[in-house]
Each structure stands twice: as structure tokens, then as C-alpha cells.
Request: fold
Amino acid sequence: MKTQRHSFLTILPIALAAAFVLYLAVAAPAGTVGQTSAQRRELNFSHAQHVDAGFECTKCHAAQASKTGTDDLLPGHNVCTECHDVTKTDECKTCHQASSPKLSARITSPSPVFSHERHLTKAKLECAACHANLDAVLLPEQTAHLPRMADCMSCHTREHAKTECRTCHSPTDELQPADHKLDWVHAHGAAANTDESCNLCHAADHCLRCHNGDPVFNPHPRNYVSRHGQDVHLSDMTCSVCHDERDFCNSCHRRLNVLPAGHFKPGWATPEGGDHAAQAQFDLESCMACHDVPGRQPVCARCHGK
Reply:
């Protein structure tokens, strides 16, 4: 029995790996698994080789003059001829995988309001800030090594640039994510608990439009206020999905005078310090969970700052 079990455990990882490879082969478009962007275009091309040779990105890609995302910035033979002799048909395979090469698929789908020129000249960005690992293998869902929306939002937020949808998208763009189908109102809860990208489109108070006080849509059962404490102690990270303001708990607890049990004991705070001093030295982080409100004077300073 042990021998059979050992054989099963040995074979299981191999079977799972084979199943995953089969899944990729079925789920991904034909000819796209394990390919680079150049290979998908039936090219033998290396960005790294050209960069090592001293070429700037704008030598081949006319991005510095591009003011719309629909511009075709992929170089053609007219660009390659500046360095390569493309008239020798017997040397086509130097760059092309096929003996009778055809024009590579072009990228013309990104937003028409996107401007490479603005990012290069005004923002002074390097091409690699948005286009990285250009010789890496593409994922099945990728069409090219383009920046993700999260990358754009992170940079715009950091540099205090506009983050409204119309900054990068035109009014006719289909912006709704693929998983936002008819049953999304029933299925979005699991995604909201595991995916931090919701806030790219939805403001912090978006959830409260449905989940605030309505017994049908409110995620909490009735009389939850009186017994929510246990859930908070078990998984405060789940609470923060909706209640992300630091003062959310404090405002209610102060109003109802709901404090930790130790705060009511004699000697908790005395002129000599009392029990609260020892507790603060032992676990200051727990104290700060309630007594550190951004933009306000620290509670300790009310007495210790005098």
C-alpha cells in the first residue's frame, strides 16, 4: 500500500505539469505559447542586440513625433535599409523566419489620445519606463510589451498628473473589463476581496452606494454592530476592503465609549505613568491602532508634551 501511495505521489506532479502545458496549448491562440513579440511576427530579432550596438529606441521607432496611439511605430524595410542591405533576397532569413516574408502585424489599437511625444519631451521619460523586457516571452493574453493600466496610474499619481479616464481614453473606448458581465453584481464580491485593481476605476465610496444600510445588499447581517469585534480580530484585512479610513473604528468607539477593558481599571493612567505606560512600552503598535489619527496631535502629546 505504501509503495502504491509513493508511486502516486511521484507521478502526481508530473501529471499536473503535463495538464498545465496542455491547458496552455488549448487556451492560447495557435503558435503563441512561449513566443517573444518578434517571434509572433515571424522575425529573428533581438532588442538587446541593437541596444548593445548603441542604437537609441527612436532610431527605429519614430515615437518622438507621435501624438496619437494609433500611429504605426513599428519599423519597416525603409528603416532597416539604413543599416541592412535588404535587396539580397537570399539573406531574408537573417531577419525573417519565413522564406517568403510578409508584413508583420501592426499595432494600431491603443488609445488615439495617447501621445508618445508628450511623454518623451515634457515628462522626460525613457522608453524603458513603459516598455520593458522586450525580448521576454509574451503571455498568451498579451499582444505586445505594453504598459498595464496599473503602471500608468502609478506613475500619474506619483507625478501628480491627471488620472481621469479621458486623460488616456477616448469617449468611444470600450473600458468595461471582460469579467463585468450580467452576473457581475453577484460575483464581484470574491474579486473585491482578492484584487486590488478595483480602485483604478472605482472611488473609495463606490461600494457604499449599495452596501450602506440596505438589508438586501448590505454584506453584514442584522445586529452586526454588537458582534463585529470577533471578526475584526480574526481578519482585519478583510474589513479594510471597505473600511479603509483609519478613523472609521475610532469615531464610533469614542462616541459609544467602547474601550479596551484595561482602560477602565484603577491605575491605568496615574501621574507616575500607571499601567498604560507599561503597556505602551510592551506593545506600542496596539496603542497606535486607535491613538494615531493622521492630521491630529498624537494622543500621547496631550500629557507628555506639556
